[in-house]
Amino acid sequence: MYAAIEAARRGRKVILADRSLIGRGGATVMAQMTVAVGLEEDGLDDPAHHYADTLAAGRGLCDPAIARLLCEEGPARIREMDAWGVGWARENGAFKRAFAPGHDRPRCVYVDFLNTGPAVSKTLRTQLNRIPEIRRVGDLLVTALALRDGACVGATALHLSSGQPVSIAAGATIAATGGLTRMYRRNSASANMMGDGYALALAAGAELIDMEFVQFFPIGHLAPRLVGMDPIMWDPFRYKLGGRLLNGRREEFIDQYGSKDEGRYIVTRDVATYAILKEVEAGRGSPHGGAYLSFEHCSEAELRGAGGPVIDRLAENGIDLTRQAVEVAPIAHYHMGGVRVDAAMATRVPGLYAAGEAVGGANGANRLSGNAITEALVFGRVAGEAAAAHAARNAARADGAAFAAETERLRQGRGAVDFNPAAMVEQLQSTMQDDVGPFRTEAGLRRALEALRALRAELVAVKPAAGRAYDTMLADWHDLETMTRVGECVAAAALARTESRGAHQREDFPGMDEAWRVNQVLTLEGGALRIARRGVPQ
Amino acid sequence: MKATLVIRRGAPGEAPREETWQVPCEAGQSVLDALRWIRAHRDASLAIRYSCTNANTCKECMVRIDGKTVYACTARLHEAPMKVEPLPNKALLRDLVTEIAPPDERLGGA
Ligand SMILES: Cc1cc2nc3c(=O)[nH]c(=O)nc-3n(C[C@H](O)[C@H](O)[C@H](O)COP(=O)(O)OP(=O)(O)OC[C@H]3O[C@@H](n4cnc5c(N)ncnc54)[C@H](O)[C@@H]3O)c2cc1C
Ligand code: FES
Q1: Where are the alpha helices (DSSP H) in A130-203?
Q2: Does the residue B30 lie in any domain?
Q3: Taking the model in full, what pTM does it have?
């Protein structure tokens, strides 16, 4: 959304296509926590400190130019959002800033209560709606980028409401499609987050970087069923109240994995993830296959103080924390990797840009909490600026040839299909969770690659033809095609990286290996995936 | 526990039909959980619209349940049969999916 606003500011006409309702289908509207920004005005912080923490979290793999951009431009974007009325929480006139793990000081602004993402999304939508140069079109699922002489000249999309293919000619195109965590059985994703932008860019000739780094959040909500809440919501409770992590036998277990829990929240995310999964493997998991998180020792007043109105939302879900423990488990939450871009968000394909979580490189092997919303705003602005400049030099030209192949492909296929794509999605999610999850082995990764290729082969024969209004079978088919490709990228990069670093943990290669302080770059050549190692830019 | 959903299906111009499904469920589960279960285990062609699944932020899953307009993701399942229909005041696209986007966010719109 920010990219569209910036391109329009620079005098271009913009089409903002979304496969869902505008500004509602992705992660931004779902984020409930915080936004990291090195605000310098009161002398307590500085973009340089934020930058140092970002690089440290990235375990040596961040692209410094892109990470610096995120940190340096963050304050301007956060203040602008403030001027637009987002409503950052304040105390005595100054922004309230929360302390989050990995940051050396309180740095994270937020909108109360747990309302950051909805407020950011609403503020951007309000700005968008005021700009007549931006044409917003929902229910438009982009299925391929259009190419002419190796440059991107627009995109072909499936109009979901009518089932018809649509050609979009554009002087420049920005992929701002978000992350990929829906590929995992346990995730915090929306239905639209399966890496479309990665698959689109890769097929158009762009490079992907750091695809092996998927961030898992150790204590995602598992049970009882809870709706109306972000599944990572237990984090603020743990900061404030500690809470006890217990196995299925209601015993503390973290201390057996070389860390301490002791009712305080000091165990790191990777140790917590490992310990929970190992307990489950040993048959000591909670009933739904995770661990218990208990606040039963806390008083009602303490809980109310920590959760405010969230306690009421829990009550609506039938959950009373003074009397019951909830079940938690590691869930896929964010993807560090993505489309490889320069500091102007340009890919190696002329006319193609990326923004937001779709971009790889800024966060290296691990992302600091709060950096994702900041990057969505900053990279959006930079991509909008660069794409507008490119479009000013390269006017959109209607060129049927660039769209013909994809339009034809969408129309091809069978009228009546007898397969269950929704079941295949579940199968794929299990493969990714079990074999390309937080802890990986060579055998598991090879098994996953085989399973993904087999699924992909199965898809060929069953493609539904476009043409029916709101055909969920065809949308699922498209999603599966994307997920088998993107899953292959993650698994292949994870198999090649024979060390453990940040969010990529190999059980057969524990520990960081200095020789692996390199980025892996993926390209598609003649339909086959290629992986190359590149020195980290300095 | 089992829930029973009576779902109105069909596309514009077709005679609407009702289908009845039995869905296994646990306490606290939503109607959206049941609709997704039906797609994965019984009939993938059932058209439904949703994005956020858990967070109740996308506001895309609105349907009619027993005559009331609700979010499928926050409506709880219960054992008595539940009647699920598309929104009556929006143009039908297929099954439970209606045209909910504002007119200026549609292809061919304002
Ligand atoms: C539950 C949750 C909580 C989070 N909490 C925080 C937090 O507290 N702080 C933080 O910094 N980060 C948080 N994150 C991460 C952060 O929200 C995301 O990284 C960020 O919002 C991504 O923004 P984006 O604009 O790149 O993508 P998104 O907001 O995901 O938007 C992508 C858009 O692209 C559309 N799209 C996708 N594919 C296609 C296609 N093929 N054709 C057309 N449209 C398409 C989608 O419908 C969607 O609207 C959280 C993430 C989740 C899931
Ligand atoms: S699925 Fe998003 S609000 Fe119901």
Answers
A1: 196-203
A2: yes
A3: 0.97
